[in-house]
Amino acid sequence: MANEEDDPIIQEIDVFLARSLLEKLYLFQYPIRPASMTYDDVTHLSAKIKPKQQKVELEMAIDTLNPNYCRSKGEQIALNVDGTCTDETSTYSSKLMDKQTFCSSQAASNVSRYAAAVYKKGELHLTPLHGILQLRPSFTYLDKADAKHREREAANEGGDSSQDEAEDDVKQITVRFSRPETEQARQRRVQSYEFLQKRQAEEHWVHLHYYGLKDSRSEHERQYLFSQGHGLAENTELIKSPSEYLMMLMPPSVEEENDKPMAPSNVLSMAQLRTLPLADQIKILMKNVKVMPFANLMSLLGSGTDSTAVLRCIQQVAMLVQGNWVVKSDVLYPKDTSSPHSGVPAEVLCRGRDFVMWKFTQDRWVVRKEVAAVTKLCPEDVKDFLEHMSVARINKGWEFMLPYDEDFVKKHPDIVQRQHMLWMGIQAKLEKVYNFVKEHLTPKKQEAQSAHALVVSGEQRVNMAKAKVKQNYGQLEKDFQKQKADMKSNDTSAKMDVSNIHIKEEPVSDEEPMDTSAYEGMNNGIVNGLHAEDSTDSLNGHLPGGCIDRVAQELKAFVSSTFRKQFVLTLSELKRLFNLHLASLPPGHTLFSGISDKMLQDMVLDTGCKQILVPFPPQTAASPDELKVYALWEAGDTYDQHRQVLLEIFSKNYRVRRNVIQNQLSQECGEDLNKQEVDRVLK
């Protein structure tokens, strides 16, 4: 009360809110003018505005007659900008810098607390401001002067060149086809600085008319700064309680909140995380960590969290690998997204990452080249998959980053069994998509997952092998002596148990017999395809004459039919097809007598095929059997000559362009082949 008596109210003023110029009134802040430009003699030559950007550009005249104006400097600037010629495009038509351009920028992003006030006859009239613009000098004329200078230099350099140099040079151009733009790429492009600058440049200028301070139109517009009616209906905003009125005068600052540094969108504090539902907490944690033991997950979720509920939620966003939880691929690569490296859609990425996860369920080690060969994805995508769940080891491959969690597997066998069934389903899908070879589908024993890696040196391996030989030598010697005694005691005409002895005689050759051990299990009680109780005339590798002929006929029939279908085969592929053919034959077939690589290759050459010495690069990783290429030389059809020319081409180079092949075929065969005929020969 004492303070109020010391500060008495002198006068009460009525406040009115004017709406006539609402969202139309701007405040311009001019810079300090030079002495040659005063408030009284300023002349606005032109004005224009971009309403959406609230950007204004004003052009003002400079008093060139003012004694403070440097005429020589003004002439020099005009000469640099426009040169010696004067036309409609000249910036300074008077050959003198007689005007200055000002461009605006927003002084404040939030102008809701600012208003223009007019006091008249004891009344204060307020009009809210729509924007506050600061005007600064524009120096675009200097850019124009630099451009003129570069043009003159280019013209001088071009004038010194000869007539030959003046001709247009042939330049190589690169044509690129853009990929379909994803939604994420489009959002990044829209938010880029270049795109925003382009959008701002596309908005057209709206030219304005400038009216001076004493103009009648200006006087008429100034009347709109006063409230048109004093009724309460038009000034309800001012009929507020003291606290509401104070809030209107001093609203909370939005700028201060915006100035605070923002955390990344993918970062949450633990306090914020624990306010979310349990399923969302687990999803966010797994998406960021990617691989986590169950015990660590429980510790992050805080005390009191039900482990049963966590197990129910974790199975929705992660899969069990090596007893640890790995986030699912569709969580990391949602639908309608694509790879940032190759643009591959999310469906293909999920399939490739599932293959990597499945490989780690079989073994602790994965080879990157093997994954790339199966999934056919780019190296960057494969590396991302492996970095999610493994660590690279020099000269070894990629090892799963966490040890095998035996505690979780023992405590939750039902979860482990359910996850195993899920992996069986994923394996079946991957097998259909990628056409796995046998070694990819061979599961490793569960105990191997928990075993620690054992490093054995070369010397230790040699010592272990020597010890094993010494251990087995005595037993082998006893077996041999017993077998030798049995052979002497039996009559030469008696039948012998061929299941104990299998000796096959072959022509002298350095090559090893072909490996058909994969199919030994198919011949139950069979030796070389013959039952033990059948005739044993082929003892010690000696086959009857008729049997030898039947083997040659069957082998020749197989080779002929195979090359009639495929024309060109490597030795490795031919052996694979032969093994498949053996698997389809009934027990006791003559081809089970044993076929070596040399016999197979000799039969290929006898059936009219030739070996093509393709010059593969020396750094190739192919095996020797893959480097041996055989082709059918004469098939008896109309394309024999074309096929022979094509094989001669590939005997000189392992990679040839299509147009070279077509030209060579036309020259050698004396006829022009169309595209369909060339495709048929190549196929």
Automatic annotation (TrEMBL):
GO terms for cellular component: RNA polymerase III complex. Pfam families: RPC5, RPC5_C. The gene is Polr3e. Residues 146-155 have a biased composition (Basic and acidic residues). Residues 444-683 form the DNA-directed RNA polymerase III subunit RPC5 C-terminal domain. PANTHER family: DNA-DIRECTED RNA POLYMERASE III SUBUNIT RPC5, DNA-DIRECTED RNA POLYMERASES III 80 KDA POLYPEPTIDE RNA POLYMERASE III SUBUNIT 5. Residues 146-169 are annotated as: Disordered. It comes from Pampusana beccarii (Western bronze ground-dove). This is RPC5 polymerase. GO terms for biological process: tRNA transcription by RNA polymerase III.
